[in-house]
Amino acid sequence: MGRKWNNIKEKKASKDKNTSRIYAKFGREIYVVAKQGDPDPELNQSLKFVLERAKTYNVPRSIIDRAIEKAKGGSEENYDELRYEGFGPNGSMLIVDTLTNNVNRTAAEVRAAFNKNNGNMGVSGSVAYMFDATAIIGFEGKTEDEAIEILMEADIDVRDLVDEDGVIIVYAEPDQFHAVQEAFNNAGITEFSVAELTMLAQSDVALPTESLEQFEKLIDALEDLEDVQQVYHNVEME
């Protein structure tokens, strides 16, 4: 599963170059989750998860607090969570998750991004069956054997655990996310290089150079859209 982590690193590196954009997307997500549940992360597991993800992207506390205060204030701004699926060049597949207050606008913008970048939209279910929802948690400071022992002591059986250049990467079921992170917290691990619920492709494709360049333009066009929160794909980015 090592190549999966490489794709996550590529995604994080891309987002790190666009901090204002990623901060805005987190602000929206935090607002929506806080409004849907309790604004206290200790009472709202979904909010707690988003805040843990935000920490790995160094989202400023001011943005987090502003979004939570907005939710507490009873803002009437509402968003729908929508997922789009589509295809890029040479058998590449994408899943696009959005938060939108204007469904028609978002659908048109996502479709246009596909059409202008050698891709095309698919129907619901045309791509998602080739991906698995997965929790990924990564950290430094422990060996692979030590990490396995920590999980065993917590009676947690995960999908996979690998050492990628000194970073321990754990792949687990989505509903194991908090249990896995808590186990490592209890073992003294408090900083995580990645803490994501993601969609991992069951198999990846390697694109020739020209197609890869086209695919990267498609990814950029989608991620530049204000309403797009996450883009998942099955392309090897190395």
Automatic annotation (TrEMBL):
Residue ranges of every copy of the TACO1/YebC-like second and third domain listed in the record: 79-235
Record GO biological process: regulation of DNA-templated transcription
UniProt-listed NCBIfam families: PRK00110.1, PRK12378.1, YebC/PmpR family DNA-binding transcriptional regulator
GO cellular component entries: cytosol
Subcellular location, record wording: Cytoplasm
Gene Ontology MF annotations: DNA binding
TACO1/YebC-like N-terminal domain mapped to chain residues: 3-74
HAMAP family attached to this UniProt entry: Transcrip_reg_TACO1, Transcrip_reg_TACO1_YeeN
Source domain of life: Bacteria
Leader peptide range in chain numbering: none
Family according to the record: Belongs to the TACO1 family. YeeN subfamily.
Keyword DNA-binding found: yes
Swiss-Prot/TrEMBL keywords: Cytoplasm, DNA-binding, Transcription, Transcription regulation
Protein name, entry field: Probable transcriptional regulatory protein GH741_14785
Keyword Transcription regulation: yes
